[in-house]
UniProtKB/TrEMBL annotation:
InterPro entries cross-referenced by the UniProt entry: DNA/RNA-bd_Est1-type, Est1/Ebs1-like
Start-end of Basic and acidic residues biased regions: 27-39
Organism per entry: Fusarium oxysporum f. sp. rapae
Annotated Polar residues bias: 157-174
Residue numbers spanned by region Disordered: 1-51, 143-197
Name of protein: Telomerase-binding protein EST1A
Gene Ontology, cellular component aspect: telomerase holoenzyme complex
Source superkingdom: Eukaryota
Pfam families: EST1_DNA_bind
GO molecular function, one term: telomerase RNA binding
Domain DNA/RNA-binding: 360-624
GO biological process, one term: nuclear-transcribed mRNA catabolic process, nonsense-mediated decay
């Protein structure tokens, strides 16, 4: 579970909502349809036998808990509902007097019946001190510690609840109407809430929240520090712990509903960030308990499954209702999905389903925060067993503006098996490529590097020819991995990283115009450069193969960025195959429509068209060397589904050609590495790079001079 986050950065955002989780909430239309579709039970004389208000209409149970559809006069979201049977629940949705109540406390001893009477307790702490003590008493002695419980929140009385006039009386039918006709409210009752009331509600909720949070921290710490192998919790004790953490989650839910209320003042809205409530909810309400459950596997598996469903549903509810912290909820949903995937050993189909769910949440999060390396690290874990994709995500997590340093440890779970020649599940060409990067990254098995690079390059040409279009995706994964290796996998001491850390105008230039190198490349950089340029040369030799264009595009984005830093390009220019690049560019020109006009800038869509990035655009987004490549709002088209991002449309090839030619033209504008001949309309190279190209040299990736 390496890398499961325990901190959350809370940033306001707005995102279209997804369907609410089953059993937790309903839309207004669904509730209305539910009530309209079932007529109330009638007595033999035709009169309604159910109470007019304050009763249970229907009960639904599922793996996430129990929900009841009720008729309650004057109900508000967040109100605590007490049932005649003794159970308690919380209103999570209402439309007028029709509401959905989620049973948030341990109701295993209570049986909810239709038409059962209910009482609205208002917005109070759902768990009182005595009830909390009852839960904690089920936990074994010697493992709980001692903590003084604060007083429970005072329950509001009718006097301090809203006294705004209602429309119910005015809307009732005339007394002359037939008594058999049920009374009907024509307009839902609305009760405004003042700032003082909101502040009082929030303070009261927070007091109860802190009480439960303190107990959760105490119990989790006590259980985690207990190393006695013979000390095992029974089902009742696990259920007590789940009930305790479930209560904390619902207290957080109430706090967010109150503090983020539409009528709340800016100061009240800021409280959640000021007191780090999203982070506290994740850490003390979910993460610590999940880690406790994980360390007690396999005995705790069923209880962990129960809590994961509960936590996922709560986060999905917050994602729907508290959009100010949407970024946090999205990442939490990804983390919970990853836990669920990790403990599924019995059913591979269920495991793959949860892997897909986690990948979608993390992808959504990375779209909103493309420079955050932590998210790519999580995606790398979910990319198994695709080794190339794993390598790409691990590299990206280290080569973005906000790198995730823990990935340097996690990436070894990918490298260690291939370094030990445990590559049964990998294609030989992929195994050789990953092994070469493992050696460059870790410094281990340096004596195997030459063999690995030779094996990969010798197999590459035939491999591309065999898998054809399937290399479109592999191509940009490989190109990005090579680029990241040249950046030293994000190490600050790398010569290119040091050059990029300074503005281009800050680079020293000698009297003869040559750049003064500020750092000397180490041996690892030289080996990475040799591997990269040999691979690039081998791919460029297939200059008529459109399946190599994503690779070429990704490499030229990297090289174009390096040309902006004289100190950086000085370490690359002598080794890079400029001549082969010019041949490839001229080949692309021949395939263009007559009258094609080459440009040195990004070709934007028409005003009435939305941008449609290439698959490799999404892959490069956020990387250090791609920051200045894409126009503003290039990724603003939110109508592109996750599955569509990497789908190759027939029109993509022409767009990709145009991008590659534009990059070549832009590099040629300096006249240092490529040249553009306006008369012949061809790409050329300066004399020192004008080497002789022989098809025989394609066998070893080198070029004759």
């Amino acid at each position: 579970m390496a890398g499961i986050m325990d901190k959350r950065v809370c940033q306001p955002s707005k995102q279209p909502s997804s369907p609410p989780p089953a059993g937790l909430s309903h839309t207004g239309d669904e509730v209305k349809e539910h009530y309209d579709s079932e007529s109330h039970k009638k007595r033999s004389d035709g009169r309604d036998m159910t109470p007019v208000t304050n009763y249970v209409h229907s009960v639904k149970k599922d793996t996430g808990g129990t929900t009841c559809d009720c008729i309650i006069d004057g109900v508000l979201v967040g109100d605590i509902i007490r049932f005649e049977s003794g159970a308690k629940g919380r209103c999570i949705y209402h439309e007028g007097s029709q509401c959905t109540v989620f049973l948030t406390f341990d109701n295993s001893n209570h049986r909810i019946e239709e038409n059962e009477k209910v009482e609205n307790m208002g917005k109070t702490c759902i768990i009182a001190e005595a009830e909390l003590k009852e839960i904690v008493d089920k936990i074994p002695h010697g493992q709980r510690g001692v903590v003084s419980l604060g007083p429970p929140r005072q329950r509001p009385t009718k006097a301090n609840r809203s006294t705004q006039p209602t429309t119910q009386q005015a809307n009732r039918p005339s007394s002359n109407d037939d008594e058999s006709i049920s009374e009907m409210m024509r307009q839902p009752e609305t009760r405004p809430i003042s700032q003082d009331q909101l502040v009082a509600e929030t303070k009261g909720i927070y007091a109860g929240l802190v009480m439960v949070e303190t107990k959760c921290i105490e119990v989790d710490n006590a259980q985690s520090s207990n190393t006695d192998a013979n000390s095992k919790l029974d089902d009742v004790q696990w259920q007590a712990l789940i009930a305790l953490h479930r209560t904390l989650l619902h207290e957080h839910h109430d706090f967010f509903l109150a503090s983020q209320h539409p009528s709340a003042s800016p100061a009240l809205r800021r409280l959640a960030s000021k007191y780090a409530m999203p982070a506290r909810m994740w850490r003390h309400g979910i993460h610590s308990f999940l880690e406790l459950l994980r360390h007690r596997l396999p005995a705790s598996r069923e209880h962990m499954l129960t809590f994961l469903i509960l936590a996922y549903q709560m986060m999905a509810l917050l994602y729907e209702t508290v959009t100010a912290y949407e970024d946090t909820w999205i990442e939490c949903l990804g983390d919970i999905s990853r836990y669920r995937m990790a403990i599924e050993d019995d059913d591979i189909q269920i495991r793959e389903q949860w892997t897909g769910v986690g990948r979608r949440w993390y992808s959504k999060a990375s779209d909103k925060s493309p420079t955050t390396g932590r998210l790519y690290h999580h995606l790398a874990i979910l990319a198994r067993p695709n080794a190339l994709q794993q390598l790409y995500y691990y590299n990206k997590s280290l080569c973005v503006p906000i790198p995730f340093s823990s990935a340097r440890e996690s990436i070894m779970t990918l490298f260690d098996p291939v370094l030990n020649n445990n590559t049964a599940r990998l294609a030989p060409v992929d195994a050789a490529f990953v092994r070469a990067h493992g050696i460059l990254f870790s410094g281990k098995s340096r004596d195997q590097l030459q063999e690995s690079t030779d094996s990969f390059i010798d197999s590459l040409d035939g491999h591309i020819g065999r898998i054809t279009k399937r290399w479109l995706e592999s191509g940009y994964y490989i190109a990005i991995a090579l680029s990241c290796s040249l950046l030293g996998y994000g190490v600050e001491s790398n010569v290119l990283m040091r050059a990029m850390s300074k503005k281009p105008e800050e680079t020293d230039v000698a009297m003869d115009g040559n750049t003064i190198a500020e750092a000397t490349p180490d041996e690892t950089f030289k080996l990475a450069l040799d591997f990269a340029t040999r691979t690039i040369s081998r791919v460029l030799y297939r200059w008529g193969d459109t399946n190599t264009l994503p690779f070429v595009h990704s490499i030229l984005v990297f090289m174009n960025h390096m040309t902006q830093y004289p100190a950086a390009i000085s370490h690359l220019e002598e080794a890079y195959p400029w001549k082969l690049t010019s041949i490839m560019l001229n080949t692309l020109l021949l395939s263009c429509e007559p009258g094609y006009e080459i440009r040195g800038h990004f070709r934007l869509p028409e005003k009435d068209q939305l941008p449609h990035p290439l698959p490799e655009d999404f892959a490069m987004r956020g990387l250090l060397y791609a920051e200045d490549y894409f126009p503003n709002d290039w990724f603003s088209n939110d109508k592109i589904d996750e599955d569509e991002k990497y789908f190759e449309l027939p029109s993509v090839t022409e767009v990709r050609k145009d991008r590659i030619l534009s990059l070549g033209y832009n590099i040629a504008s300096s006249g240092n590495w490529l040249l553009w001949n306006r008369e012949t309309r061809q790409f050329e190279v300066p004399e020192k790079y004008d080497v002789k190209i022989s098809l025989d040299s394609r066998q070893d990736g080198n070029i004759e001079i």
